[in-house]
Specification:
Largest interface: A-B, 42 and 33 residues
Strand order of the largest sheet of chain A: 3-2-6-7-8-9-1-10
Largest sheet of chain B: 6 strands, antiparallel, barrel
Number of domains of chain B: 2
Largest sheet of chain A: 8 strands, mixed
Distance between the termini of chain A: 45 Å
Distance between the termini of chain B: 33 Å
Helix content of chain B: 10-25%
CATH class of the largest domain in chain B: Alpha Beta
Number of strands of chain B: 14
Mean pLDDT of chain B: 92
Oligomer: heterodimer
Mean pLDDT of chain A: 93
Shape of chain B: globular
Strand order of the largest sheet of chain B: 1-2-5-4-3-6
Order of helices and strands of chain A: EHEEEEEHHEEEHEHHEEHHH
Radius of gyration of chain A: 21 Å
Radius of gyration of chain B: 17 Å
CATH superfamily of the largest domain in chain B: Nucleotide-binding domain of ferredoxin-NADP reductase (FNR) module
Low-confidence stretches of chain A: none
Number of helices of chain B: 6
Number of strands of chain A: 12
Structural class of chain A: alpha+beta
Number of helices of chain A: 9
Strand content of chain A: 15-25%
CATH topology of the largest domain in chain B: Rossmann fold
Strand content of chain B: 25-35%
CATH architecture of the largest domain in chain B: 3-Layer(aba) Sandwich
């Protein structure tokens, strides 16, 4: 049992729920991106955004806190927001970030952002991008609401109490949703025995270490911390910013413990972290099959093709 | 993860050559050989330091004047230092009881072994013979004098040298039995060579433990800066048993 919303009422619905909250959705600017929505008409629902919404939980340049001397002055208050039009791959990616940042020692900033965010997902009814392979990745429902496009209406599955509050006044409706298929599939996920396969080196030789893969990946979360001091006010700021394991300087230590790293190891590190290592610690895979790293790689490196060819 | 650090008081500072000092910090909790702490110097950054010793008043760390953080800690003589931890998995000293121990380390990276050595001395009836092989790099004199004092026990044998070639020879001289466990704390380039040497001496991988000296940033297993294959040095290590991480140095 869920709710029904006529498509002609979508704008009204979104206007209503976005009072006092920021509404974020896929919009077309220079690319299809998650951005704050100024006009509901800007929202794009038939393309996967080229960049994931992780910047709302872990910004690329994130001010962690300010301090004066040794006293931490606190963190900035985070806005409440609704992320509308998010796909299942990105919803599951946020679940991956939750596992890391809300584990044994929750990160205060991430926790506040996560608690203040409502996720309204759009369920894919067909393969939306040719490089999607989400159906191979055992994804689950974690969004607060799921919108299913059923022609002239949306059937809305409720995923949480937070979601229910937004749709409680809508008409109840029953609808049987179905699975989707993607042409691209990842046939093997247990890839430990292929670690030394030559195919990795062949792929890595094409890599130009641009780091686009980690930038567009919804679950890449590695960061570097830096501090800045304002000598006039005596207030310092601690920031963290994204780094990429596909850049050699990520691995270099400044002292004598420098790692002997090469592109093959860097590529394998990324793929194995997504498919293998993360699962050992967190019991879920880190890759959600969005396919962005494959679509956007200028060197056309496709780790799914590589793995599917292993015998 | 809270962003707050605890204030620990500097009880004592002791020079260890011109470029290093041992800081004794007041601390009431328990620490274990092979664990480390994270120190934050506001406006500069944070860095991790292996714990070199613990007693009833607190613990010691060795600070070598090297990085921006350590250069700011180094001049301090008293006051408070902002600390998080102890963190990490240390040497499994309980599991190593009733065995012979071989500790192989080098000067400024010796801290984890200092702690292991003092643990052995405090629990000497629990361990058989302990051999120490030290590669003496900088700082020189103070390190060796302290080592000599620390190993003044009939069940502890110390060998040391300044030369890398002689260092390997000293290791080759040791008689490793099935009841020997090896604890290592070395620069990675030496670590690889020593692991290879130990292999030639038929020491089993499950009997080798090493402290991996990697830059650890967040100390929470999140930022990825200390990742090695699937392991995060800061939370899965920094002490690893070699047979658990065979691919590390390939």
């Amino acid at each position: 049992m869920g709710k029904l919303l006529k498509k002609e009422d979508l704008n009204k619905f979104l206007y209503k729920i976005k009072t006092k909250q920021e509404l974020v959705a896929p919009v077309e600017t220079d690319a299809v991106r998650f951005e704050t929505v100024k006009f509901i008409s800007q929202i794009i629902l038939d393309k996967i955004p080229e960049f994931p919404p992780k910047k709302y939980f872990l910004p690329s340049n994130d001010e962690m806190f300010q301090f004066r001397g040794s006293k931490i002055l606190g963190t900035k208050k985070q806005p409440s927001r609704i992320i509308f039009g998010i796909r299942q791959c990105d919803v599951n990616a946020i679940n991956v970030l939750d596992k890391v940042f809300l584990g044994k020692n929750p990160d205060p900033l991430y926790k506040e952002r996560r608690e203040k965010t409502t996720l309204i997902a759009i369920k894919c009814s067909k393969e939306i991008e040719k490089n999607c392979f989400c159906t191979s990745m055992n994804l689950s429902n974690f969004a607060d609401l799921y919108f299913h496009d059923i022609g002239d209406s949306f059937f809305i599955e409720v995923g949480s109490d937070k979601g229910l509050k937004l749709v409680s006044r809508l008409k109840d409706y029953e609808y049987q949703t179905g699975p989707i298929n993607t042409k691209k599939r990842l046939f093997k996920k247990d890839i430990a025995r292929y670690y030394n396969n030559k195919a990795w080196k062949d792929a890595a030789n094409k890599c130009i270490s641009c780091g686009i893969c980690t930038n567009v990946c919804p679950t890449c979360l590695c960061y570097k911390q830096k501090e800045f001091s304002d000598t006039k006010t005596d207030i310092g700021t601690k920031k963290r910013s994204w780094v990429s394991c596909q850049h050699k300087n990520f691995w270099e230590d400044t002292d004598e413990n420098a790692m002997d790293f090469d592109k093959t190891k860097m590529l394998k590190h990324r793929v194995y972290h997504k498919l293998s290592y993360f699962k050992k610690n967190y019991r879920i895979g880190m890759c959600t099959g969005c396919g962005r790293c494959i679509t956007q790689c200028p060197a056309k490196i496709d780790f799914v093709k590589i793995i599917n060819k292993f015998k | 993860m809270t962003y707050e650090y605890a204030d620990l008081k500097i009880i004592k500072k002791e020079a260890n050559g011109k470029l290093a000092s041992i800081f004794s910090l007041r601390y009431k909790g328990a620490a274990h050989p092979g664990q480390y702490i994270s120190i934050w110097v506001p406006g500069i950054g944070q860095e991790t330091f292996p714990i070199a010793h613990q007693d009833s008043t607190g613990f010691n760390i060795l600070v070598t004047k090297k990085s921006d953080v350590s250069k700011n800690i180094f001049p301090l003589k008293k006051g408070l230092i902002l600390v998080k931890g102890p963190f990490g998995h240390g040497f499994p000293m309980n599991n190593l009881k009733k065995t012979n121990l071989v500790m192989i380390g080098q000067t400024h990276l010796f801290s984890p072994l200092w702690f292991a050595l003092s643990y052995v001395k405090e629990n000497k009836t629990s361990y058989l013979k302990t051999s120490i092989v030290a590669l003496q790099t900088k700082p020189k004199k103070a390190f060796i004098e302290n080592l000599k004092k620390a190993s003044s026990d009939k069940n502890i044998n110390l060998e040391y040298t300044e030369k890398a070639e002689d260092f390997k020879k000293l290791i080759k001289k040791i008689k490793f039995t099935k009841n020997t466990n090896v604890l290592l704390s070395l620069k990675e380039e030496y670590l690889k060579e020593v692991l290879s040497l130990l292999k030639s001496k038929k020491v089993q991988n499950k009997n080798i433990y090493f402290y991996l000296h990697r830059k650890m940033n967040c100390a929470q297993g999140i930022c990825g800066s200390c990742a090695v294959l699937g392991e995060k040095t800061c939370v899965d290590g920094p002490v690893f048993r070699f047979d658990d991480v065979l691919g590390f140095f390939e």
